[in-house]
Amino acid sequence: MPEDLLQSVNTTLLSAIQPLGFEVVDSRVFDSFDNALVVLCSSTLRIRIARERGQILVDFGPPAQHSVWFDSDIVLEHLQLSTDRSFVGTSATNVLRGLGAFILAFSDDLRRMFDSKHLAGTTREMDKLKERRAKRLFGWNPPANQVK
Known about the structure:
- There is one protein chain.
- This protein is of the alpha+beta class.
- The chain has five helices and five strands, in the order H-E-E-E-E-E-H-H-H-H.
- The termini are far apart.
- 25% of the residues are buried.
């Protein structure tokens, strides 16, 4: 039986990052493939944890823009920490432990990246990283009218 994602988030992640004021704002379990979603929010950051076909995936976003999300691998690359995915795996507990340690260690950087003063610049930089990553991994080039 797969782990209950919300329970894992509450037990493993939320307890670790409690001093930062995060709370669960959305939680869903879907009918197919045991997919699930949990969204956490603080005054400075949103975190989306999804289980899709057994894989745990993490995205980050600003609290004020609910449709804006950045993959954890792009966030890590933006912080010059990694060019490979780090918050992906089949064990929610393992992924969430690593995520909790990361959030605690880089909370100031994350807050600054997603605050209203820096969000436009952060978005531009992470969009460039996404384009470079796509080119590196898949040989993809954006259409000329999309190059920034």
